[in-house]
Recover the amino acids of this structure.
Protein backbone atom coordinates (compact mmCIF):
# COMPACT_ATOMS: atom_id res chain seq x y z
CA UNK A 1 0.00 0.00 0.00
CA UNK A 2 1.35 3.37 -1.00
CA UNK A 3 0.96 5.66 2.01
CA UNK A 4 2.03 9.30 2.14
CA UNK A 5 4.86 10.39 4.39
CA UNK A 6 4.27 12.88 7.19
CA UNK A 7 6.07 15.48 5.06
CA UNK A 8 3.75 14.79 2.11
CA UNK A 9 0.71 15.10 4.38
CA UNK A 10 1.96 18.41 5.78
CA UNK A 11 2.55 19.71 2.24
CA UNK A 12 -0.93 18.63 1.14
CA UNK A 13 -2.53 20.30 4.19
CA UNK A 14 -0.66 23.51 3.47
CA UNK A 15 -1.76 23.48 -0.17
CA UNK A 16 -5.37 22.25 0.18
CA UNK A 17 -6.40 22.96 3.78
CA UNK A 18 -8.46 20.24 5.39
CA UNK A 19 -7.77 16.82 3.85
CA UNK A 20 -9.16 13.33 4.46
CA UNK A 21 -7.50 9.93 4.16
CA UNK A 22 -9.44 6.88 3.01
CA UNK A 23 -7.95 3.42 3.19
CA UNK A 24 -9.50 0.67 1.08
CA UNK A 25 -8.81 -2.85 2.34
CA UNK A 26 -6.90 -5.38 0.35
CA UNK A 27 -8.99 -7.77 -1.75
CA UNK A 28 -7.54 -10.83 -0.01
CA UNK A 29 -6.41 -10.94 3.64
CA UNK A 30 -2.66 -10.81 3.97
CA UNK A 31 -2.04 -9.37 0.51
CA UNK A 32 -0.39 -6.00 0.00
CA UNK A 33 -2.86 -4.60 -2.49
CA UNK A 34 -4.73 -2.21 -0.20
CA UNK A 35 -5.19 1.35 -1.44
CA UNK A 36 -4.80 4.71 0.25
CA UNK A 37 -6.27 7.98 -0.99
CA UNK A 38 -6.34 11.54 0.25
CA UNK A 39 -9.08 13.95 -0.76
CA UNK A 40 -9.56 17.65 -0.21
CA UNK A 41 -12.96 19.11 0.58
CA UNK A 42 -14.86 20.00 -2.63
CA UNK A 43 -15.30 23.67 -3.44
CA UNK A 44 -18.41 25.29 -4.90
CA UNK A 45 -17.16 24.90 -8.45
CA UNK A 46 -16.83 21.13 -8.06
CA UNK A 47 -20.18 20.81 -6.30
CA UNK A 48 -21.84 22.91 -9.00
CA UNK A 49 -20.39 20.70 -11.74
CA UNK A 50 -21.59 17.59 -9.91
CA UNK A 51 -25.08 18.97 -9.37
CA UNK A 52 -25.42 19.83 -13.07
CA UNK A 53 -25.67 16.14 -14.03
CA UNK A 54 -28.70 13.93 -13.42
CA UNK A 55 -26.76 10.70 -12.92
CA UNK A 56 -25.75 10.19 -9.27
CA UNK A 57 -22.84 7.95 -10.23
CA UNK A 58 -21.51 10.53 -12.68
CA UNK A 59 -21.89 13.26 -10.04
CA UNK A 60 -19.86 11.20 -7.56
CA UNK A 61 -17.20 10.65 -10.22
CA UNK A 62 -16.92 14.40 -10.83
CA UNK A 63 -16.47 15.08 -7.12
CA UNK A 64 -13.99 12.29 -6.47
CA UNK A 65 -11.80 12.95 -9.48
CA UNK A 66 -11.69 16.69 -8.74
CA UNK A 67 -10.83 16.33 -5.08
CA UNK A 68 -8.27 13.51 -5.16
CA UNK A 69 -4.89 14.86 -4.07
CA UNK A 70 -3.04 11.61 -3.31
CA UNK A 71 -3.49 8.05 -4.53
CA UNK A 72 -3.82 6.07 -7.72
CA UNK A 73 -6.61 7.75 -9.73
CA UNK A 74 -6.78 4.74 -12.07
CA UNK A 75 -7.87 2.59 -9.09
CA UNK A 76 -11.13 4.56 -9.06
CA UNK A 77 -12.05 2.72 -12.27
CA UNK A 78 -12.68 -0.40 -10.15
CA UNK A 79 -16.38 -0.08 -9.29
CA UNK A 80 -15.93 -1.71 -5.87
CA UNK A 81 -13.21 0.81 -4.95
CA UNK A 82 -15.25 3.68 -6.40
CA UNK A 83 -18.39 2.77 -4.45
CA UNK A 84 -16.46 2.28 -1.22
CA UNK A 85 -14.87 5.71 -1.49
CA UNK A 86 -18.10 7.39 -2.61
CA UNK A 87 -19.81 6.10 0.56
CA UNK A 88 -17.03 7.48 2.76
CA UNK A 89 -17.10 10.75 0.87
CA UNK A 90 -20.68 11.35 2.02
CA UNK A 91 -19.23 11.77 5.50
CA UNK A 92 -16.57 14.21 4.28
CA UNK A 93 -19.16 16.43 2.70
CA UNK A 94 -21.80 16.04 5.40
CA UNK A 95 -23.62 19.35 5.88
CA UNK A 96 -23.76 21.05 9.25
CA UNK A 97 -26.94 21.03 11.26
CA UNK A 98 -28.82 24.29 11.53
CA UNK A 99 -32.01 25.53 13.12
CA UNK A 100 -34.32 28.26 11.95
CA UNK A 101 -35.87 30.36 14.71
CA UNK A 102 -38.49 33.01 14.31
CA UNK A 103 -37.37 36.14 16.15
Amino acid sequence: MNRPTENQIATLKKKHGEIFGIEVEETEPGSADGLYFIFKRPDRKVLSAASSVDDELQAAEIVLKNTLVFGDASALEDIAVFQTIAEQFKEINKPRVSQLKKL
The chain has a mean pLDDT of 90.
